[in-house]
Amino acid sequence: MATGIDENTGQIIKGVAELKQRLQRCMRTRKVTVPLNRAYGSNLPYRIDRNITPELEMDIYADVADMIAYPPNEFSDEIKLNKVWLERGENKVMIGLEVTLLFDGSVEKITGLSV
User: What's the pTM value of the predicted model, to 2 decimals?
Assistant: First the structure.
């Protein structure tokens, strides 16, 4: 698992915390907006400010699966997606994931992801 720097505190982070930060960054980045890597990102930012319907939920689940499986985002060789769910709060919706870490086979739940 990789090591990185926390985008808020500047402290070194490792393991699932670093993976969560990379997932969060990728979810917030619209595809084709990174000049030297147009393929990086997800379609999730296009789902903001829409009413949550069963169709939109399915689109969100599909966008998360696509983001993780898409090679330019560099998750496909590191994690396997097991489950996606939405966490509804007051005036916000968060995304939760259950993933299998491919390097050791452990299953991790990552919650509180937002776009």
Answer: 0.89
